[in-house]
Structure prediction request, 669 residues.
Amino acid sequence: MPCILTIDDSSTIRTIITKQMTDLGFEVEQAEDGVQGLAKLEVITPDLILLDVTMPVMDGPTMLAKLRESKNTTPVIMLTSESKRAIVAGAMKLGIDDYILKPFKPEELRAKVLKALRVDGAAPSAETPISASPVAPKSAAPAAASSPGLQFTDVLLIDDMENVHKKFRTMLPAHFSMSACVSAREAIQLCQERVYRVVVIDMVIPDINSVALMNQLRALQPHAVMVALALRSANDTSAEVKANGFSDLLSKPFDGGAIDEFLGRHFEVDEVLVVDGNVLTCGKFEGKEEKIERYFSRVRTLARESLEKLASACHDEALIDLSMAPVRNDRLIHLVMLVDKECKRLGLGLRIIGTPDIKRALASVTDTADIPFFETRSAATEAA
Amino acid sequence: MSERVANEVERVVLARIASNRLVLPASPQGATKALETLREPNFRASKLVQDLERDPILAVLVLRSASSAAHGRPVEMKSLDQAVSRLGAQQLKGIIVEYMAHELFQSSDRRINEANNRVWEHSVVVGLIARDVAALVGNAEPDSCYLAGLLHDIGKPVMGAMLLEVERSTSRNGSAFISSAQWTAIVDRTHRRVGVAVASEWKLADSITSAIRDCSDYDAADRASAANIVRFSNALAKREGFGTGTVDMSDVEALVMVGKSMLGADETIVNRLVANVRPRLQQAK
Prediction:
């Protein structure tokens, strides 16, 4: 078990440190000043020293100098209310690993101790409130995604008009999570608490420089895509917003097609169509009924692209799993006809997987009746 | 001989500052007037437009700024009235102060101009970092912190101009009246007080004046103050290679280490803050 020596003339500070460190599973030894600290070091070999600066009898820097003179290289964190750079610079020359200013937050102490001890799990995100480091979306940085305490949200919308929030919410698929706020301060706070995949910033918010705000949020959300939101304009403004550091431009009033394109560009559309090897699986439809055509339109577009990729990868055959797709006969038939046509054009074989309802629907139309159909993926694979 | 001259120049400057008799370089008249108008509680936009029209460069700057995407959807501004109402008082103040500051960094002397350019570049970087740090640590005025960062070394070009004037009026045969080391030393010792005099002349917010005055050590009593943010940003800028003159890296590292704990910033976030500072500086130019 790692041992920590805390040297501080305040018994309150020593007690707080002892409590926090023992809670982390460390052993803690205490000393009231530099002389006592050096005496302790005669009998124990701590893994880390937490050292105050101003103490009676012998202060921290003097003790540190003696410690290093004796070739003792134990890591030291200076924990003090002293912030004069000359003193800290002097201590750095003698070899301190880190510095904590009193009064300190428990999470800062914890993170810096763990870092100094090089204990696994010393995630930077635990260090301090503003360093509650955002972690990446699943697709961007899987390792970071395990950091505790931060919630993933798909979209953050910053616009001073709440009606824009409402409208945007209705345009997103129901399963998308979204936060919205009207001010820069709220946006920063949200970005400290959550991890966003896309941040949409209105370009006209009173008293806010949207470009400056975007740069601030980028420090907190390095993996998020920053999108400018601007009124539709006759001029093409996308080049200008990109020159300002945004990755994309979204226009308002919102348009269903443009939102679909936007979602397609910035989100894994795994809910709509997942490609695994040569199997294309249609996802569930969870939106309102009036958005069903957008769903099928998106599937058709993605299916075309995916089939091209299967052909490029020299697959002989494509399996389309419609089991989760919404049963809307006309649209399903239209989709399968298109897929069949594309497969023929690309020289791919085609097998369909789906429910009995879908089988009946496809069997009722000449163009789709003869396409091999299976009720399970294993059956389709075995037949291949 | 030159040592005596250097001491005398410094003594005169400091005495003038102490007795409030320091004559600062003239600021562009239109900008000064516009700033005065903006300080009036219920200023008239038409009066402000008149002030801005006195200075064509400033007028163009305001129009360009209002047209840019940074202040909303890019729109071609057809008049100053339109630009003034689009930007609002706060942003206009920032633009005007930045313009006045930039003017102070202009010199007809090549050597001074080169030195000023380096200080200006450093100041812009400090301002950019300060604005982001301010927003992240909960300081309510990120834009004031930007200006505080931009102006923290404003005394340097002013002192440079003063020394140049003394040199021109005293030296014979174009020879330097003090050594360049003495020149630098005088600027280093006096520029904070001169900077405060400029801030006071321009009636800038107390937070900005304080950031110019107290740039050496942190104030633990007000952790997220503009002055602390500028100190931290100044150190980060120097660590990133945007320093001016000789930089004591151990001093800089100590300021960064203390600043991180003072403001609650870890190394990860610090790295992100400075990661894209170079392209942003290019953009700001």
The domain at 146-266 of chain A is CATH 3.40.50.2300 (Rossmann fold). Chain A touches chain B through 54 residues (CB under 8 Å).
